[in-house]
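Posting this for the archive.
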Amino acid sequence: MSNPAQDFAADAPISQVAESPSLKETFRESLTVLRISQFRLVLLERLLSTSATGISSVALSFAVLAVTRSAAHPDGNAAAVSFVLAAQLAPMLVFTLVGGVLADRFRPQRVMMAANFSAAAGEGLAAVLMLTHAANTWNLLVAALLMGTGGALFYPSSQSLIPRLVPEERMQAASSLSRLAQSSMLMLGAAVGGVLVTAFGPGEAMGLDAVLLLIGTLPLFRITVTALERAAEKAPGMLHELREGWIEVRSRTWLWAVIACYAAVLAGWFGGFSVLGPEVAKARLGGAGAWALIISCDGLGILLGGVAGLIYQVKRPMFVGTILTFAFALPPIVMGLGGPLWAISAVSVLAGFSGEYFMILWTVALTRHIPQDKLARVYSYDALGSLSASPLGSLVAGPAANAFGTRAVQLGAGAVIIGATGLTFMSSQVRQLRADAPVLSTLTAPLGEEPAPGFVAV
């Protein structure tokens, strides 16, 4: 039996110094992916659209808190924030699988355009409601549904587009740079969001979100990726295509185990951190500015994780990635224990770093182990499964905090994250998945049959 400590030492991120003259040259080599003009267009879209996401991460919660102030809830009603954020996540349960099929069937950049238009409509509606003083919990919930629909359609398309623009040996660099663009703008957007909400109000902030999303759609018009070719005699229907994607997922233990893990992890994160965090920030940390700092620190961690992805690689990505997942428990636990702003900010950096580096490893693993013509559908099942419990976590957190106290709910959320991650780490296939397996281009088992033994390198 192998020694886990020795395995981690052998398979933890390995500096490229051992394989290259210097980290500087490794970093410079990674940046050569920027020579691909179509990839640069994707980065530009991510810079613009993710800045809107960063602003919205502050503005939407404080918009709900602003319209729900009462004698009983002088800082706003956390339960109402739960309902609205759950509404933003709920479309993942409906439209993510549709988005995966559409991205495998049509040009993924066209699906991304439609997604941005939907999200911009939601942001614009929320802005108009706030600026005209017509907002309430229910119409902000409708706006959140439009935002969430855009996110549900966007994710599988965006994830399947980059592998069709860059060669496989540049995928980790491309994934890292793409996510670096997102993390830097998420951090900047959250900071700008805090300033806008404090100085002007959440309505003005969400109006800027809508404009940035529309501008971010423009680079997608210049991307020339075509739809994947399909034989006319096949022309499968949507249910058939969904079944193909499901077979890809269920035939790989490492894949569905990690997806199931993140269903619990993200439920705890959204409930214990995203929903209750703004209330804690407003009650004892200083308000919107403090929450913007915490979100910005999470974004800083994401930024550092992206830089690490440009330089460091691992032999067993899910082994390292699962260990990193434990860090998601720290922000709700420290917040629940009454930690000061600096401590919450510090663990938010660590959580952001861990989550970002995990996502880079996850993206490369899927690109290498999943056939390209099924990739968007697998990403859609990934998003659906990972986020399936998030609306429940968001819905439960606010009412539970009102009933049992914020501290108890945040500590419980941390315990859920630790428990789910520990169970996933027990899987040998999760720990042993190799990053150096051959790249797959087509499905090796007919529909309805299990892949042959040895199909997956685990």
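The first helix runs from residue 4 to 11. The two ends are 16 Å apart (CA to CA).
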